[in-house]
């Protein structure tokens, strides 16, 4: 009902704008002076909300916050194997549309036969990129893993990522380099810190092992696939509609660049390959491991003996290394409302799939653009006291720290709830009951995957 009321006000405002324009013609006096002043006030209020409401309430570019309260209906799925039990839960919440997507493949084929794939894609500007990625990423990963296994990666690493990918097809991938935006200490070395006093025991590998190399290559190839697909969609449909206030402000910036359906539509990606321990790992007496690829501000958190260990770092524009790259690419980083944004009006994250408006510098490589799809790869060996892994979009961390998220899941599991119920409790508690009281936080889509180790 609230949404209907907003639509009526929006359409009425459009009608009044037309009348106001007609009045500017000589000899036309259609409105009473008092009514004219009220009309102008309404027009200004609507315009201000359309332009700046999203900045202060983290509104969805696809339509802003829902009017009338959050949509708490959840989509929950789960499964189990000999060594893992998992659940995925998605909830639209306060957003006017659901832009998240998830992906689970319990058993991958060779050469990743000992791995299970879990991924959360948090879309922005629309749901197209996140949903395409959730469907296509396993296929891209398989092609890239096969390419690496065949021993062709040595020459491929010298080449640029293949951008000649046709929609519906997968051509050979070339690996991109993986880098970390981890803060550095004053002496230039990486700050080796622990979380809550617990050593993370994380091996940061630029492209270490088949899993890390395959994930790094796949993220770059997925982005190239989306670029080619976006060009194809745009040529057939003249682009996708952009209803975002930010999108409208940015339209003129695209006038001199090649149009792409995903110029202002993108998605983060947090992807994990988890050893199932079903074959070679147990046979050789090796420890199981988790390899995480992060591109954006979604997050992976490991629970080790009740303590949260972050296996990813949020890629935000204000991070020193990210801001440096953005500025070198001709952009800027400004604090607008509650967060820092690229070029003042743009994204509040610095790595993503899609978002080709920010990747339009032809004189720069894919790793040097304002926004890049190069993932950060982290691998950690699992310990006996590792309980579960959480992959979640940033909506689950607006009201909670990583430790809060671990505590919510731990309390649920120890109370006898199953993994599905624990996932539902997490997304429920991540959704604000009142956006005014929480100052806009907790108003995002909420999607989470919990992987419990058995």
UniProtKB/TrEMBL annotation:
It is found in: Membrane. It is an enzyme of class 3 (hydrolase). Its main location: membrane. Residues 183-194 have a biased composition (Basic and acidic residues). It is a peripheral membrane protein. Its EC number is 3.1.3.16. The keyword Electron transport does not apply. Residues 85-453 form the PPM-type phosphatase domain. InterPro entries: PP2C, PP2C_BS, PPM-type-like_dom_sf, PPM-type_phosphatase-like_dom. Keywords: Hydrolase, Magnesium, Manganese, Metal-binding, Protein phosphatase. Residues 151-196 are annotated as: Disordered. It catalyses: O-phospho-L-threonyl-[protein] + H2O = L-threonyl-[protein] + phosphate; O-phospho-L-seryl-[protein] + H2O = L-seryl-[protein] + phosphate. Its cofactor is Mn(2+). It comes from the Eukaryota. Belongs to the PP2C family. This is protein-serine/threonine phosphatase.
